[in-house]
Amino acid sequence: MTKNPTLNKIAFINGQPFKIQKGESILQFAKRNHFSIPTLCDDSRMESYGACRVCSVDVALKADGPTKTMASCHTPISEGMHIQTQSPSIQKLRKNIIELVLTDHPLDCLTCESNGNCELQDVAAEVGIREVRYKNAADHSHYDKDESHPYMRSDLSKCINCYRCVRACDEIQGEFVLGVQGRGFDSKIIKGADLSFDDSACVSCGACAQTCPTAAISDVFQSKSVQAQEKIRTICSYCGVGCNLEVSVKNNEILSIRAPNDAKVNAGHTCLKGRYAWRFYNHPDRLTSPLVRKNGQLVEVSWQEAYQVIADRFNLTKSEYGPDAIAGISSARCTNEENYLMQKFMRVVIGTNNIDSCARVCHSPTAYGMQQAFGTGAATNSVEDLDYTKLIMVIGANPIAAHPVTGAKIKQKLMKGVTSIVIDPVETEIARYATYHLQLRPGTNVAVLNMMAYFIIEAGLVDQSFIENRSEGWSDYVAAIKALDIAHLEQVSGVDRELVKQAAEAYARSEAAMSFHGLGVTEHSQGSHTVMSIADLAMMTGNIGRRGVGVNPLRGQNNVQGAADMGCQPHQGAGYFPVNVQANQDYYREKYGVEVPTEIGYKIPQMYQAAQEGKLKALWIMGEDIAQSDPNHHYVIDSLSKLDFLVVQEIFLSETAKLADVVLPGASFLEKSGTFTNGERRIQAVRQVVSPVGGAKSDGQIVVDIMRAMGYQQADYDPAVMLQEISQIVPFFAGVKWDELGDSGKQWPVLPDGTDTQILHSESFKRGLGKFHYFDWRETNEVKSHAEEYPFILTTSRNLEHYNAGTMTRRTGNRDIVGEDILLINPKDAQQKNLKSEQHVRLFSARGEVKLKAQISKKVKPGILYTTFHFPEFMVNNITSSECDSETLCPEYKVVAVDVEAA
Ligand SMILES: Nc1nc2c(c(=O)[nH]1)N[C@H]1C(S)=C(S)[C@@H](COP(=O)(O)OP(=O)(O)OC[C@H]3O[C@@H](n4cnc5c(=O)[nH]c(N)nc54)[C@H](O)[C@@H]3O)O[C@H]1N2
Ligand SMILES: Nc1nc2c(c(=O)[nH]1)N[C@H]1C(S)=C(S)[C@@H](COP(=O)(O)OP(=O)(O)OC[C@H]3O[C@@H](n4cnc5c(=O)[nH]c(N)nc54)[C@H](O)[C@@H]3O)O[C@H]1N2
Ligand SMILES: [Mo]
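Above: the input entities. Below: the structure tokens describing the complete assembly.
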């Protein structure tokens, strides 16, 4: 064991001895030992700045030695130091500094009704200031107030020039929107070239508002005169980053949301969705009562009646057509416990494995591909590993928009010079900072990754010992790679072979290379093949099983990892045991106490097919808006119309809910408790903040009620009790207990004694040896069949402001920031098609058409178009196809053959 050099080294605060920790500043040392030192320009999330000097302390290098006054925030603590935090001279110094600061601040500062929201007021009180001596030396009351933004405002007359906002924008978000203009008393914080929030490039993360010690920049909704009764910690329900949130509540109403600094995942940072886009929860459009279709209309009914209709129709369908005529789609937006219940209902009460979730249309190729290569489909490492990695490879992911807190961390690393490879057809924000941007044609990942493997092998940069000791299938793989026709792959992918070679060698030579991937990998006909190709690269270079390496899917939804873990898949039950294996059937039968179905069930696309063929009669969808989000919209609608009975459990009357026979009002994440599992396998506690609106109920309780209506006895929904049941069935949940999750949760596998796991596959793979797989690159059918008639390739993605079907974000101020799906088109194509920016265009494919506004942009290459799918009024999935991944049926949203013309 190596010895910790600072172990047992001691320093003193106000005469008391304490152990010091490596790398600590005096301020951190004091705070850790519960000594209060006032600060103004300090924020623990950022580098120390040492500008305000309020944190000054007296420092002596030995007892009774001469003292020096030093800023504690940026002076390192060292052995034997004696710190005085409250000497008379220090107290006087602090008071003088704050008095000067106050001269730069409106007169009413000490009396303004900030109710604990003003750090400056707190610090003034702490240093003993009762009145302002030099009143209004610098009057900034003429500074404009900026009220242009739905969520943030600025009133720079209150600014004290601590620059925390500027540093937060740079160091936390990495956006560099805020800056300083002028000097001394006249210096002023500006946004961009002195613009409003609205006109600037601000991404609305709110880090500046959170850090501002006065109200110079603040949240619009932060009501100064209302103080929260309670602050509740919960988890964001948007993306798979899983940010911790601290919600301020009064009288069952949410006042504001902030990011707690001690959160493991997001340490005081969120994006605008987590921090601000919560107003959907009490929007008038929320569903508040069950609805049943009568004479063609959805009408309000009692829960009792709705349950009766459902139980009767499911019983009837089951007796007439058998259990496999019924299917369920569970929700990656809901909790683990709710997902567990939903699959249990389908398997145990109905008796079918027809259960799936949005992982199908998202990362099912990741789960499958990584299971084939490693044995486990989940991220091998943690986001924290970014601090240890030497090379970051981002393939088909746009984390700045889709996983903003992780994206900001990646961007910070890139700005600090960490080598990076970005493989993406679009010039994303991350690509702008990349060392190597491989801007391939959509649909050619396997070609590019095979080229990378070729160059690594050719240069002799493989990790022989890893390959020999930890993998199988190498010799066949290597033979196939060596036989590749590089010129052909270069031509089909459109990426210069020299660039691919440089990137490949950088990846292989790096001491620790970490890959992240997203939907640009999975949502393709070769999605699973691409995932396995990424695993090949990691294994051949030994980038698995230690800090700062690995294969890390940026999982999409807040709980898509959990939905699959809980068994919301047609081929594997809770804990990933294949349902068609006798031993597993015995296992589940014993746990559930009833017979379990033995045939693999329908995946979502197979449900449509079965509905078309008259085999599927009834469908229960919990929290997924397939009518908007699944591809080939007309086909989806047509398939749903062929069902006898459709139940949709929602928080809004989504496009799918509009088609239902019964609509059940679920409670949103702010109105219920449970757990979400983020993209790094972290199981975190979601805690109820307010009571459900109207007559809504937690999705878990609704499932329990329907289980009971159909004669199965299941206890009321209670996450603690549910987790007990789950921990008996899902081996990697063995040690998960509700009361032990704390604020930042635990990463699975959680052992029976409660210890959790940060890095997978350290010693061996789940499947024993890692497996190499080789695949030829294949042109997708979409291009082969339609390219002549539809010569452009459209790729569809998401933007920062809106979330998937947009049911939630469209009902918040985010709509004021972005109000439509926009089509990006290269200037050359625009010229050839005679299109201008802002012009409406018709975009059409073999399936249908949409009309969108065009924006001319060099972010896409000629021949490539790009848009998003957030608005039902545009319905981009009118034009996407039913082509899908060869192994998992994940739709090919990323390659759509289209043509475009002026509308
Ligand atoms: N703001 C916001 N955040 C979200 C969501 C949202 O809707 N809005 N949705 C959540 C969900 S469900 C998910 S799954 C994640 C998705 O997050 P990401 O995985 O980042 O998904 P996308 O932005 O759809 O696509 C990622 C990138 O793939 C690129 N791409 C397209 N075709 C190819 C290709 O052939 N090869 C390569 N290498 N790249 C390609 C696109 O240009 C795009 O930059 O985001 C989650 N977070
Ligand atoms: N063209 C195109 N289409 C795509 C994609 C793409 O890249 N391009 N990406 C695909 C991907 S990756 C995904 S994951 C899917 C996502 O597609 P969906 O899963 O349909 O998208 P969401 O908007 O997340 O929809 C979830 C629904 O759950 C509801 N909801 C939210 N919270 C709760 C709750 O607590 N209880 C209940 N009962 N309901 C709730 C919301 O109102 C919303 O209607 O879209 C896919 N569609
Ligand atoms: Mo997703």
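Note for the figure: The two ends are 70 Å apart (CA to CA).
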